[in-house]
């Protein structure tokens, strides 16, 4: 019998006792958010004594510990909120029990990472909030976001979907073979967007007049407006600039400015512009001749930059 899907018919409700192992930025934010809407948070763990003290202040009545086993012993549903690299080893270090649920928060890892818990008779699942959590006090960041939910157990899947909805989010089902593409998209839209903004600021700052920090501050309203416009109007309508206009002279100037900072900056600009050129074309204002010329400019710039980067 597949214990993860049918070995337990345990029912999970809003009154089920929840424990969080590894309550860092995401785990802490989730515990605080769930407690605020009436979920039963029983115990949370952190290796850092100062963070356990912080958690005690923000989660009155909730036990804190440094021991993952203590969390597992006290909870019906255990959320493993550690880094992806530690989820498997943490799961294997704990003695789970039949009828218990064990959930991870990873966007990249399949729920089978928790196979040890399943072998012990627990049911397993995953829920990943498609959001960034730069602080453990980001408990207000769950509303309006998407949650990727995976579980072979129908009862646990239903509970995870309810959690997402109660937090004001939109649950979607995800499978193991979809996770790499899903999480790559998330990182491209978040972490790599931050890196891209940093690279953009460095290109601007390279000619003097502003520091990178000043350039980032100046670019942030532009980033926000672009994100808001995409939310309201989607693609390709939100895309603006020389690529939708077919402004070849400006594209050449951009290639020169970015590669003038470093070959890596030049390659990043050319690769990103080249990969997104088809989206610009979807607006209908870019002629095929201009699109072909721009593609040639970008392909040449990318090839030249990569050849220099890869020289021994």
Question: Can you offer a commentary on this structure?
Answer:
The chain has 312 residues and is an alpha/beta fold. It has helices spanning 3-6, 25-36, 49-58, 68-74, 84-92, 115-119, 154-166, 179-189, 191-205, 212-233, 242-245, 248-261, 263-275, 277-281, 288-309, and strands spanning 17-21, 40-45, 63-65, 77-80, 101-104, 123-129, 146-150, 170-173. An eight-stranded mixed sheet has the order 3-2-1-4-5-6-7-8, with helices on both faces. Helix 8 (179-189) packs parallel to helix 9 (191-205), helix 9 packs across helix 10 and helix 12 (248-261) runs parallel beside helix 15. The longest helix has 22 residues, at 212-233. It starts with a helix and ends with a helix.
Low-confidence stretches: 1-7
The CATH class name of the largest domain reads Alpha Beta
Biggest beta-sheet profile: 8 strands, mixed
User: How many structural domains in the coordinates?
Assistant: 2
